[in-house]
Amino acid sequence: MTETETAPFPGKPAQTELAVIGAGPAGTALAILAAQAGFAVTLVDARPEVAKNTSDTRTFAVVRGSWRLLCATGIEPDLRPVITPLNGLEAEDGGTHWFGAPHAAFSTEDLNPDGDGAPLGQMVPAAALQAALDARAGSTPGLTWLRGARFSGMTPGAAKSTIQLEDGRVIEAGLVAACDGFNSAVRQSLGIRTEGRGYGKSVFAADVTLSRPHDGIARQLFTPEGPFATLPLPGNRANLAWYMKTGAAETLAKLPKEEIEAELNARFSRFAGEMHLDGPALSYPLVMQIAVSMVGPRTALLGDAARRINPLAGQGLNLGFKDVGALIDVMTDARAAGLDPGSDTVLAQYTEWRRFDAAATAMAMDMIDRVFSNDNAVLKPLRGLALMAANRIAPLRRAMARQASADQDHLPSLMR
Asked: I need a surface site. Which of 155, 169, 273, 299 has the fewest CB within 10 A?
C-alpha cells in the first residue's frame, strides 16, 4: 500500500526493511522492484505531491540490459508509444585527416548474429520515464511512498539506521539506499568523500527535427572542441548534445531560436542534415565525481550519489540501473541465506560487484574525451586505427556492442 501523506507518523518511528532516499528513475525503480521482491519499502521523495515532470526535456539512451530491468517494473506499456528503438551506434572522428575521417559503426546484427531483430536499447524521454515509474510506484503493494519528504539526517545503528526527515518524521530501516543524486545528503551525512574533476566544458542540449531520416541510429562526431551527438527520437526528430567550453554552451542556449539553428547548421549540417529546434534548449556543466566508497554503515550508494561520469556514451543512468539490479540481487540472496541484507558482509558483496565496473566505465569515458577532443598530430593516427579496428574486426565490434548495451552474462539477473 502506498502513502503520500505529509503528516508525521503517529507515535513511534515507522519501521521498514529498505528506505530509498531519492525518487529519480533509479530510486523509484529500486523501490518498485524491491517491493515486488517482497521487501517492505519506504520511498522518500522530496518532490511535492503535485510535481510535474514535463519540464525535463532530456532523453535517455536506455540500453538493452537496463530496458529489461525497467520492463520488470511493469512500465513498458506506458512507455511504448513514446520510445524509439536504438538500432545502431556510429562514431566519426571529425578532426583533420589526410585520407578521410575514420569511423566505427555498431548495429543490431552485432548483438544478434541470428537476426532476432532486438534493438541495442530504447531512447526514452526523461519526463515520460519518470511519469511511468511514478504511476507504478503508486500502485505497488508493500511500497510506502512519502511525497514532499526531505531527508534531514541519519544515525546508523547495529541492527538498523534511524532516519530523520525535515518535517519531524522518523523512519527506522534495516538498509538505506542513497539515490539522492550528485549532491547526495545521505552520502554527506556519512562523511563519504568524493574525488573527481571539472572538464571546463558544458553540454548544450536540445530536441531538433532533422531533414533526413535517422533510422534509429545514434550518431556521434568527435571534434577538437568536443563531441557532437544526435540521438534518435520518434518521427524524424533527435535529441542533440554538443560539448562546448564552459560559458559557450550557456550562452548558446539563451540565444533566439533562429540564431541557435544558424549556428548548428553552419557547423554540423554536413554531419546531421539541416536541423530545426523542436522545444527549449538547455545547458549543464560537465564534471566527473566518484565517491571513495559505495557503501557506509547500513547504506548503499546508487546512481549519481555514487558517481557522476562523462555522459559521452549515455552510460550514467545505465550504471545507476546496474546498481539497482545488483542491490536487488544481493538483498534477495541474503534473505534466502538467512542473512541481514543491511549487514557489512552483504554490502561488501554489492561493492565488489559494482565498484570496478563503475570506475572502469568512468575512466573509459574520461579517456575517450581526452583522446578525441583535440587535433593532436600524434593521437590522430592512433585513434583512427582504433576506430578502424572497431569497425572492421567483427569479434571486437560484437564485444564492444555487448558492453555498450549491457547484454552480458555477468550482469544482475534482472538485466540478463
From this structure: 155
